[in-house]
Amino acid sequence: MRKTPERATEEEKKQRKRKRKKKTKQTITHAVTHIRLIEANPGKLDALDQLVVAYLALTQQYVTRFCEAETSPDKFAVPIFETELSDRWHRVAMQQAAGIAKSWRTNRQKAYEAYLEEMADYAEAKAKAEASGAPLDPKRKEPEWGEWKIPELRVPSIQANANVVVVEKAEDSTFDYWLRISSLDKGNPLRVPVKLASYHQQTIAGRTLNTSTTLHKRKGIWWLTLSFDEDVPLQSASEAPKVGVDVGIVHFITTSTNKEYGSFHGKMARQHKRDREKRRRKAKLRACLEKKGVPSEQLPSTSSATGQRLGRFVRQEINRAVNEMIKDHLNARIIYEELNVASVRFKARAMNSYLYASNLGHIPEQIAWATAKRGMAAHTVKAAYSSQECPRCHCVDRANRPNQQTFCCVVCGYQEQADRKAAHTLADRWGDRELAACRDKKAVKALLLKRHENWKQKNGLVVVQPAVQLGLWDLSQTSTDVAER
Ligand SMILES: [Zn+2]
Questions:
Q1: Are the beta carbons of 69 and 258 closer than 8 angstroms?
Q2: How far, in Å, CA of 193 to CA of 36, rounded?
C-alpha cells in the first residue's frame, strides 16, 4: 500500500529537480560560420568535390524515401542503397537525410492540419450563411490544398560528425586547424588546412568546439561551419512582468506594452514589388521558350538574385527589430506565439506573398535566440484565435476584426488596435493551462466559447446588440428597428 505513493513522490522529486534545473540555465549553440577553405591545394578540393557528388546523390535518395515513407524517418535504419561511400559516410548521409525529411514532414503535416481547420471553418461559415439566407462574404474563398514537393538538395552540403570529419588543432603556426576528412580512397584521408580570421579566433577563444561540422560549397568555394555550446544562466526574476509579442504584417512586432518595431512597408515593399515584376517577366520568357521546345536546362533560372538579396535584407531588418524590442524589455518575460509555416502562410495571405511568409517565420526564431543569449525568460503560447478573441468576454468572431487595424468586439464592444490586442491576448495565455492543453484549434475554439458563455451568464446577458453597448443608437431607435424586422 505504501509503495505507490512513495514512488510517486520519488517521481515528483525527479520532476521538480528537472524543472529547477531547466530554470537555472539554458544551453545555446553558437555557430561559427563563413570559414573559407582556401588554403587547401586544388587536388584536395577536387577529392572533396568527388566525395560530395556521391554523398549528395545518396542523401537525396534517402530524403525522397524518408519523405514518402508511411512512418517517421529512422536514421538508424538498415542501409538500403548502393554507394561507393564507406559505411560511416553512408550513416552520416542517412542522418542528414532523416533530419531534412523529419522537418519537411512536420511542416507539411502542420500545414495540412491548418488546411483542414481552415476548411472546417469555411464549411461552418457557409452552413451558417445558408441557414440565415444571407450570402457568404464573397471575399472568403474555399481553401485549397496543394501537395508539397519533396525537397531537392541543390547546394552541396555535408553535416558531418567525428566519424568522418575530425577537427584537429594545428601544431605549426601557419594554420589553426586541420580537417581530417575520410575520403573515397580508403585509408587515405584528406587533410584540409583551416585558417581562421581574427574575429573567428576571438569568438572561439577558450571554448570547446563541438565535434559536428558542416561543409558546404557555394559559387565554387568550400565553407566550413564550426560550433560550440554555451551555458547561459537564467537572468530573469521569477516575478518578471510578462510582455506579449505579436508578429504581423504591418509591423514585424507589436508588444502588449503598445510599442511597434520594424515594418515591411516603405523601401522593402518597393524592392519587393520590383523583384516580383522581374520574376514575372522571367517566368513569361521561360514559358515562351518552353513552348518553342527549348530544353529545360537551357531555360533561364526562376530563382532571382534580387529576391535572395531582399530576403537577406528582410532578415537583417527583423533582427534589428527584435533586438530593439528586447532592449526595451530587458527585465520582462517575453511571451510570443508558436508560429509554424502554415500559420505564417495564413497570416501573410493578406500580402499574397511567399517572401513575407518565409521571413515572418524568422521572427520567432530570432526572439528565441535573442532571449536565450541574454538568459531572459521567454515562452511560446498557442496563437489560435488570438487575433479574433475578445479579451473581455472571450467572444471569437471574424467580425471582431472589421479591418486589419481594428479590433472591435461584436458582443461587448471592447475596442483596441488589433495587433496590440493580439499581443495582450498572447500575454494572457501564458500560464493558462486549460488552453495549453487544447489539442487543436477546434478545442481552443470550444474552450473560448465556454468562457464566453460563462461571461454572458455572469453578466446576465443573453443577446446583446453591439450598437446598444457602444451607445451609438438610442434605445428607442433600436427597438423600432428590431420591431420592423
Ligand atoms: Zn467582447
A1: no
A2: 10
Chain-centre distance for alpha carbon 482: 48
Going from the Cα of 454 to the center of ligand 1, the distance in angstroms, rounded, reads 12
Q: How far is the CA of 75 from the centre of ligand 1 (A)?
A: 50
Distance, CA of 68 to CA of 56 (rounded, Å): 18
Ligand 1 midpoint to CA 412 (Å) = 4
Cell numbers of 294, please?
A: 527549348
Pick from 417, 391, 387, 421: nearest CA to 405: 417
**432 within 8 A of 341, measured Cβ to Cβ:** no
Residues near 358 by beta carbon (within 8 Å), at least 6 away in sequence: 311, 344
How far away, in angstroms, is 340 Cα from ligand 1 center?
28
Which pLDDT belongs to residue 207? 94
- 205: helix, coil or strand? coil
Q: Give strand ranges (E) for 148-268.
A: 157-160, 165-169, 177-181, 190-194, 213-218, 221-233, 242-247, 253-255, 260-261
Residue identified by cell 495587433 is 419
Distance 411 CA to ligand 1 centre (A): 5
Nearest residue to 20 (alpha-carbon basis) of 238, 204, 209, 169: 238
Q: pLDDT confidence of 86, banded at 50, 70, 90?
A: very high
Mean pLDDT across 274-283:
78
Residue 10 has pLDDT above 80, yes or no: no
Q: In Å, what is the CA distance from 439 to each residue of 14, 102, 381, 444? A: 26, 21, 13, 8
Report how far apart, in Å, the C-alpha atoms of 463 and of each of 137, 220, 412, 481 are: 23, 69, 10, 16
pTM: 0.74
Tell me: the pLDDT tens digits for 311-348?
Answer: 788 888 889 999 999 999 999 999 998 776 555 555 55
| CA distance linking residue 45 with residue 29, whole number of Å | 28
The sign of the CA dihedral 354, 363, 207, 25 is negative
Cβ contacts of residue 428 below 8 Å, gap of 6+?
Answer: 244, 391
Cα of 387 from ligand 1 centre, angstroms: 13
Q: What is the pLDDT of residues 196-219, one digit of tens each?
A: 999 999 999 999 999 999 999 988
